[in-house]
Fold this sequence. Notes:
2 copies of one chain form a homodimer.
Chain A: H1 19-23, E1 35-46, E2 49-56, E3 66-67, E4 70-72, H2 79-90, E5 97-104, E6 115-124, E7 140-144, H3 155-172, E8 183-184, H4 186-197, H5 203-213, E9 216-223, E10 231-236
Parallel strand pairs in A: 1-6
Antiparallel strand pairs in A: 1-2, 1-4, 2-3, 2-7, 5-6, 8-10, 9-10
Chain A binds a DNA duplex through helix 5.
Amino acid sequence: MEEVTSKQQNREASKKPQTEAQAHGYDPNKYERPSVTVDVVMMSVRQKDLQVLLVKRRSWPYEGMWAIPGGFVNMDESLEDAAKRELQEETNVENVYLEQLYTFGDPGRDPRTRVITVVYFALLDSERLHVKAASDAADVRWFSVYNLPPLAFDHAKILDYALSRLRGKLEYTTIAFSLLPEQFTLRELQHVYEIILNKEMDKRNFRKKILATGILEDTGERKMEGTHRPARLYRFNPAAEHKL
Amino acid sequence: MEEVTSKQQNREASKKPQTEAQAHGYDPNKYERPSVTVDVVMMSVRQKDLQVLLVKRRSWPYEGMWAIPGGFVNMDESLEDAAKRELQEETNVENVYLEQLYTFGDPGRDPRTRVITVVYFALLDSERLHVKAASDAADVRWFSVYNLPPLAFDHAKILDYALSRLRGKLEYTTIAFSLLPEQFTLRELQHVYEIILNKEMDKRNFRKKILATGILEDTGERKMEGTHRPARLYRFNPAAEHKL
DNA sequence: CGAATAGTGTCTTTAAGACAGTATCCA
DNA sequence: TGGATACTGTCTTAAAGACACTATTCG
């Protein structure tokens, strides 16, 4: 129930009329409002490592520290649209995996004012990905999630949470495929699992299990690199999503 | 990064100074802010049914329709504290299971103004529970999740989401115990599973599986009701949380 | 033919599921 | 002793895990 109760105080002056609402005697400015931001945790598997994109803060608070990219939500855009906008401000990829992660809103988490942040989680495949050559390249960088710098705000907690969500979903969803290009070898897929779960897996059991689900389609092509037998290239078959 | 960019307009007049923030040249009123509410989906297993507590709206919008209880977040309380406050406004139970569910914030979901709602999910055990005799008993009621009235806002979508979360977590967490009193029979536990998953389960396999995990402790007591053999009473052993 | 990675099969163990009869209490 | 629910065990099937050798390519 988004009902007006009488506990809070009116601390804001009223603004321009919002026709229908005001016709019903509803004053949208009756309560003091927190700021709402959307932060986007962008992860990718690169260089045999699970990495996250961070930006260096250029002003108070936490000036010079690294932080998860984010920004205010516009009044007329959905939370997901705000997340997509942030994503495009930092990278130039589209159609990435994007889900809402959690909302963090403890008073005091931001010294400026009360800030509630809705955190989204994006997974980028290493191939299509290139970070925008923003103002200053030194201000936007990939970091290993296993070796993070000191982080601004409560962002260390947020990354912990993102990693555990990723690990959980890896087991019962097809989330891993969003970290790979369209075609990939079984070994590459296994590496994604191993890097995220941070443990080695048995090659034979892994292949058996994945192939048994029927979510992979043999492309007929092969990937040759180095001086050894080439590997088959597979592609994810979304039609067989159900299994796993 | 909760960084001030220059895209949005300054539509609010500044308020009283917030010392540290303003000393750093940060103006907390630079952006128009959405309203933030916390809604709490309260569910319980009662009368062999999974039920949710709803309140009847007394004013525009959606006047007379049923809605999930909720309210504005105070500037100095955490989101979880706001949820606990809502919980206590409607019921008089403490120490209930409470988790954050999801944040809904589409523009237009509330005709009054932009409202972003952080939804929490509470599970109440049927024994301790009694709804507060609020202003008017007819305005607060339990409904079967399998037979809901028309709901205000996007609340039908929210309840769908809550139910699927509950079903998912039932399988790999000990969430079911928060719907039962301290002592319960295996049959009662099985009924909780059956009611939530909406399917019958085999008694022998269910008991075998639950007992094998070691999360139950035999109290030595028995529950007698009706003219038949009494059932053993168990209690949940949180020390053995890991299994399941 | 040596180096390097791709690719394959069997056995064991564990968990899940199908299935029916005996035990205990009360009236 | 009849009615009602508690309680129990075996067999089958499927999934997970341990484990080692052959195949193919390039230089």
